[in-house]
Amino acid sequence: MTVRDLITDLQLNPLVEGDLGRAVTGGYSGDLLSWVMGRAKAGDAWFSVMGNVNAVAVCVLADVACLVLCENAALDEAARARAELENVTVLRSNDTAYALAAALSKRLERIV
Amino acid sequence: MQMVCTVATRYEVNNLKLHYDVSGDDFTRAGEASGAIKATLKRLGFPADVIRRVAIAMYEGEINMVIHADGGVADVEIEPDLIVITLTDRGPGIPDVEKAMQEGFSTAPETVRNLGFGAGMGLPNIKRYTDTLTIDTEIGKGTCIRMTIAVPA
Ligand SMILES: Nc1ncnc2c1ncn2[C@@H]1O[C@H](COP(=O)(O)OP(=O)(O)OP(=O)(O)O)[C@@H](O)[C@H]1O
Ligand SMILES: [Mg+2]
Asked: Which among A49, A75, B107, B117 has the fewest CB atoms less than 10 Å away?
């Protein structure tokens, strides 16, 4: 599935649109940045409440498909600007990381 | 952060040397040096997996210099088969390297923990993503971290 599919299927609100055609191959949930860099895989959708500029840097370096801000967590202005500059997709939802990850998992299972 | 790039290329990718000053006062900007290296490696056509490992390992080292050592310098050497990253600071040094290498050990202050740092996973991540890692450190003098990543043929 692509990031675009993810937006539709999980009813996400796009805050910054990067490469929406990019494939989403898995998911990772967490807010501690080094934990994410150590454990998330390239192509994952990253579920977090961390909407700061460092989180955007982690998206770039860890090469995740997108950042999904859960439970309506805020994306601060510096982070939005950096995401636009770096072509990082940032999405948002009312739902919890648990609900979103479970939904993604179901979709990916269906595809495989 | 100031970028001073000395490009000493004789052949295409051979012996490319890059130097960055990593400022200690603004860690929202940390990641610029690793971001620049990532872009350079991409342009040079290195494999995506190698680029990702270099970018993460270097970012962890860079952010450590900003949070724990008030900044420093980063030197990166790019060869077709090997990438060498050297991070040097004049910070407080690391009293117990073995302890610092353990997952979960962190002395990061509350202010940076609120931003998502301080999991005590940075050095373990560097270890995980590099082929060699050496840490030279002296209390009150500073720390020099050298890491290499081999590029599979
Ligand atoms: N350049 C440095 N100068 C001085 N101390 C350092 C340096 N780098 C690391 N340390 C020490 O080693 C500890 C562990 O570093 P590590 O990167 O693993 O975790 P962290 O930076 O505390 O948290 P995280 O990287 O998960 O955000 C740090 O908390 C700090 O005490
Ligand atoms: Mg660290």
From this structure: B107
Task: Tell me which long-range contacts B114-119 makes (C-beta under 8 A, separation of at least 24).
Answer: B115/A33, B115/A50, B115/A52, B115/A54, B116/A31, B116/A32, B116/A33, B116/A50, B116/A52, B116/A54, B116/A55, B117/A32, B117/A33, B117/A34, B117/A54, B117/B63, B117/B67, B118/A32, B119/A32, B119/A33, B119/A34, B119/A35
Q: Which domains does chain A have, with CATH numbers?
A: 3-111 (3.40.1390.20)
Q: Within 10 A of B84 (CB to CB), how many other CB atoms are there?
A: 15
Q: Render pLDDT for B61-72 as a digit per residue (tens, 0 to 9).
A: 999 999 999 999
| CATH number of the domain to which B40 belongs | 3.30.565.10
B interface toward A at CB cutoff 8 Å? 27-28, 30-31, 34-35, 38, 48-49, 52, 55-56, 59-60, 63, 115-122, 124-125, 128
Domain hosting residue B88, numbered range:
23-94+123-150
pLDDT in tens, A63-87: 999 999 999 999 999 999 999 999 9
